[in-house]
């Protein structure tokens, strides 16, 4: 088992924008830590931006104690003055990077009227307008949603939702899709790929195909608050604005949860400040990761249990006609072939009466 966290590292100059990005990253990392705790026997792939964005769309429709709970757990609120524009600037900044595509979608029951203010705030913050769907025909609605996800992930997630995952009671779906495809700045030579032993998290070893390269990388050695030594190496993509940070403990028996508990936007900034350009040999397993998780348990553990309770959840800023029950679902895949890397992820948040 190899638990992996993959993130995009971007340098955005605006102070307010950087602050929002840090808060969204911190929230996403807290969600990731919860998922990693629950998934000790499988890989986990997560987009902090995707989780934060789609939950922010739900936050825009929350009212009363539900709004307060979401703001407390997330560490920011798009309902505050000026935040809608900051969210739009952040999304635009990410989307303009070469190879990155981000899309947010809202699928709404065709006979349901959304609050005009909710409609406007979605457009301002996420540049998205609701798509009308006939949820009384669940299989047809699933086809529409799967087509949307496929279109925004270069066809790499053709069946995001399976038959039976929706009911005729579903009234609204919030979606986020992130797709990235880029070439490594320094490509791996396929001729150097060899089979070597890989140390799994459960203590076993398995033979895998290891890509190898010797070159200059940004590299650093660090220690957690609990005294665990680990190192970080940065592998850049073409253009140098995007990179993959690989983090691993020195000792193979150290659980990865020890490192994931220490993740934060501040920690990532520290890494990037203290990394030094040195010559290193990098051996990276050739891998494909599929990750599908239900976020409900993670969010409940973070104090958001009431948003899943129809007696306490208040999403009347979406529509005042019904009480909604929130369900969440996430699916993502990461592919790392010899010379390029692809990340794509999609999430959905379902509201049922």
Automatic annotation (TrEMBL):
GO biological process entries: negative regulation of plasminogen activation; negative regulation of vascular wound healing
Source taxon at top rank: Eukaryota
Entry protein name: Plasminogen activator inhibitor 1
Signal peptide boundaries: 1-18
Organism: Astatotilapia calliptera (Eastern happy)
Gene3D superfamilies assigned to the protein according to its UniProt record, in alphabetical order: Alpha-1-antitrypsin, domain 1, Antithrombin, subunit I, domain 2
Family the entry assigns: Belongs to the serpin family.
Serpin domain residues: 29-353
One Pfam family here: Serpin
Gene from which the chain derives: SERPINE1
GO CC list: extracellular space
């Amino acid at each position: 088992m190899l638990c992996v966290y993959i993130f995009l590292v971007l340098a955005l100059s605006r102070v307010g924008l950087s602050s929002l990005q840090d808060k969204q990253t911190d929230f996403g990392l807290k969600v990731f830590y919860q998922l990693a705790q629950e998934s000790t026997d499988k890989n986990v792939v997560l987009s902090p931006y995707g989780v934060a964005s789609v939950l922010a769309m739900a936050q825009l429709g929350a009212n009363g104690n539900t709004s307060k709970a979401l703001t407390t757990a997330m560490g920011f609120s798009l309902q505050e003055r000026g935040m809608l524009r900051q969210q739009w600037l952040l999304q635009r900044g990410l989307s303009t990077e070469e190879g990155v595509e981000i899309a947010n979608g809202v699928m709404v029951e065709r006979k349901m009227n959304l609050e005009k203010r909710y409609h406007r705030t979605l457009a301002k913050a996420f540049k998205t307008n609701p798509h009308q769907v006939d949820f009384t025909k669940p299989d047809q609605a699933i086809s529409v949603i799967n087509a949307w996800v496929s279109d925004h992930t270069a066809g790499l997630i053709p069946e995001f939702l399976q038959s039976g995952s929706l009911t005729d009671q579903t009234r609204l779906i919030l979606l986020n899709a992130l797709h990235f495809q880029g070439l490594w700045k320094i490509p791996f030579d396929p001729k150097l790929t060899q089979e070597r032993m890989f140390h799994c998290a459960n203590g076993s070893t398995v033979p895998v195909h290891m890509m190898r390269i010797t070159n200059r990388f940004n590299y650093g050695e660090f220690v957690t608050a609990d005294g665990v030594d680990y190192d970080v190496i940065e592998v850049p993509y073409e253009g140098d604005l995007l990179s993959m940070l690989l983090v691993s403990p020195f000792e193979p028996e150290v659980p990865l949860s020890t490192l994931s508990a220490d993740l934060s936007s501040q920690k990532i900034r520290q890494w990037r400040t203290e990394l030094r350009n040195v010559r290193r040999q990098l051996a990276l397993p050739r891998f494909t990761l599929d990750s599908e998780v239900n976020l409900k348990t993670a969010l409940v553990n973070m104090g958001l249990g009431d948003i899943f309770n129809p007696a306490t959840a208040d999403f009347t800023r979406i529509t005042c006609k019904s009480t909604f029950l929130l369900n969440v679902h996430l699916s993502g895949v990461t592919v790392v072939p010899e010379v390029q890397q692809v990340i794509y992820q999609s999430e959905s948040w379902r509201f049922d009466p």
